[in-house]
Amino acid sequence: MIHIRLRIVHNMDPLSDIIALLGPSAAIAKPITGRGRWGVRYRAHDAPGFTIILAGEAWVAFEGGAPLRLAQGDFLLMPTTPPFSLSSEAGLPCTWVEPRGEAVRHGDQPGDPDFIALGGSFAFERANAPLLLSLLPDLIHIPAAQGRATRFGQLIGMLADECLSSHPGKELITRRLLEMLLVEALRWRPGGGEADHRGLLGAMRDPALARALRAMHEDVRAPWTVAQLASVAGMSRSAFAARFGEALGCGPIEYLARWRMAIAKHALLRGDRSLGRIAEEIGYDSASAFSTAFRKRLGCPPGSFARLHGGGGPELSPRAPASPHRGRGATG
Questions:
Q1: Strands, sheet with 25-35, edge to edge from the N-terminal-most edge strand
Q2: Domain ranges of the chain
Q3: Is 81 within 8 Å of 49 (Cβ atoms)?
Q4: For domain 206-308, is the CATH number 1.10.260.40?
Q5: Backbone dihedral region of 107: left (phi > 0), alpha (psi from -120 to 50 degrees) or beta?
Q6: Which domain of life does the protein's organism represent (predicted)?
Q7: Of 160, 150, 144, 141, whose CA–CA distance to 54 is shortest?
Q8: How far is it, in rounded angstroms, from Cα 186 to Cα 122?
Q9: Cα separation of 98 and 186, whole Å?
Q10: How far is the C-alpha of 13 from the C-alpha of 268, rounded, in Å?
Q11: Is 0.90 topped by the overall pTM?
Q12: Integer Cα distance of 167 and 190 in angstroms
């Protein structure tokens, strides 16, 4: 499996930062076909799932929700995959099945299928996935009618052509197209006023919150206060804190502390920087201050975390070269 790893550059926008830390790659992509009347149910599984309808239609349903019709050209992304059912008609009885890595056929086995989809899952960097996925919506559904005229629609068309071909390099091209689709889906803005304003994507659609988020991500080392971020957002302190908490599920300083630790974990797994360098890059006065904060949040020192998750190396030491940016502090 080929994984793309991007180094974080802090003049990137928040969504690009998150995608870079997740390091997404298409882990499984398989054809799903069906004919006649059929219904299957899947248990929750610990991987982001997706479905692209290439021909026909189907109905997907999640616990406690109404069935959702998926038609040709539709794209469905579940950053975390809860239990769900997929069927040829809404309300059909469904049989429990286990996810498999190979092609799947539902319903009548003989004859040409009347339903064709590409389904599968993405692999993310595990250390930061829980935090970063919590900032994304539970479900992203892009109907063909809304995505067709965009680059997203063009990618769907290219992917459909590739899936139906037998060209050399088909698997590699399919994986790359899926990774591009993931990014396009995460930054897609639904029409018709149906956007969910919670989570990072919703917050980035709010001009005031977007300004504050960009400021934090562009200068993660700065000793931000709620008052300073409210000024960047052009709001009063109390109004900004309330709106930020409603959108992101935590206060702005807590969000910043979590983001700093996400950057730190990513750096520890790479194993190419000292503790002092990591501390300086995310706004701590010293390696010891960073180590204390890391242990408080993660329950173990940075070195133990790196060894446990297969990171670390000769650079993982407290010492770091002198830096002109010393003197900034951080909490959390």
A1: 104-107, 25-35, 115-123, 49-55, 75-78, 140-142
A2: 14-187, 206-308
A3: yes
A4: no
A5: left
A6: Bacteria
A7: 160
A8: 13
A9: 27
A10: 22
A11: no
A12: 34
Question: Residue 144 to residues 32, 94, 113, 189, 223: CA-CA distances in angstroms?
Answer: 18, 26, 21, 14, 45
The rounded Cα 157 to chain-centroid distance in angstroms is 23
Quote the percentage of the chain above a pLDDT of 70.
Answer: 85
pLDDT band at 2 (very low <50, low <70, confident <90, very high): very low
Distance from C-alpha of 311 to C-alpha of 270, rounded to nearest angstrom: 6
DSSP class of 325:
T
Closest to 40 measured CA to CA, from 90, 89, 104, 106: 106
C-alpha 84/C-alpha 58 separation (Å) is 13
Rounded CA separation 229/212 (Å): 6
Specify the DSSP element, H or E, that contains 93: none
Per-residue model confidence (pLDDT) at position 142: 87
Tokens 């670390």 found at: 312
Compute and round to an integer the Cα radius of gyration of the chain. 22
Residue 306, classified by CB atoms within 10 Å of its CB into exposed (0-12), middle (13-18) or buried (19+), is buried
Give me the residues paired with residue 62 across strands: 84
Element (H, E) at 86: strand 84-87
Rounded distance, CA 269 to CA 257, Å? Answer: 19
Report whether 27 contacts 123 (CB < 8 A).
Answer: yes
Reported as a pLDDT band with limits 50, 70 and 90, residue 311 is: low
Classify domain 14-187 at the CATH class level. mainly beta
Q: Give residue 209's identity as a one-letter amino acid code.
A: L
> Nearest 5°: CA angle at 308, between 314 and 258?
95
Distance CA 311, CA 199 (A): 29
Cα(55)–Cα(115) distance, integer angstroms: 5
